Amino acid sequence: MPKLKFATLDVFTTKALEGNPLVVVQIPSGTQLTQEKKQRIAQEFNLSETVFLHGSTSNSELRVIDIFTVSAELPFAGHPTIGCLCYIAQCEQPSSAKSGVINLRLKSGVCEAYFDTSTREAAASIPHDTHLHAATISPEDVFASQPNLIEGIERSVNRNPVVWEGWKAADEQTKLPVFSIVKGMTFMLIDVPAIIDGLESLGTSSIPIPFKADLLDEGWKDSFIAPYFYTILPSNTSRTQDKEDEENTTNIRARMIEPSFGEDPATGSAACALAAYLSLHGKRSSSNGPNSTYSFRIEQGVEMGRPSLIHVQVILDASGKRIGEVLLKGTAVLVSEGTMYV
Q: What sign results for the dihedral spanned by CA atoms 66, 69, 74, 77?
């Protein structure tokens, strides 16, 4: 019976019992696990994602990881990537932390990464293949899943009758985007204006937003899909804003709520999708030029008592019209270690 070492970490935080929990299961060189066994192990831990970290087969700095939810394997996910990088650097291979370089092979491609020993922060250049789908969702679709959101709107309208002009359910001109960061990872990006009591009004609904994978564009239909609610904050409202980069950073509060698994404290893949979308199509995109760079600081998990902080930097290519690089940054702390017998 194989013995596998595992560790749990809290990701996108510097404090244990905050951020997003993650399991990293080590697979020693020469040990083979079937897809079915990996899936059952992920179900045993029952967290949003479990990472399987394969042992190094040479002196190469490239490490292979597999990312599983309780129901399927994913081509990419943000908090498993950052958490695994921090684990390798701080726990498994301290020498990697000294050199700074740790590269991962995911199903979506090779992820070039760097670990900063002074800040204990991992930065990963995320494999990406961004795509804005033709299909959209309407506010009415959102209200069907989140009826509590209407109450937040009504409170805001009572304070300011014109606050909700552009987001009424009957306003057929309002279309909310569906965006993929890579094939297999797609998000409904739902902008909840900061002036309403929106994010706080959201509930862990059992009613999904009525959008199915068969509505995605051809070649993209085999995908995880989830809603990502966000509010763009004034620059002086972020609890973590540094004055030196205030003008260059967009501060965002976000929530990921999906009926199939509830609420997620930190969703790096969704944060990358949102940052890429806003860089290409947001208000500042009209000034895009060659190699334009945009920075985002995204707070998530606050409402569920597991505050998380995600940093994303997006660099456009030489045309200024496409994504050149998506850099995901974050920290993680070790919570527990153990051995499983499977």
A: negative
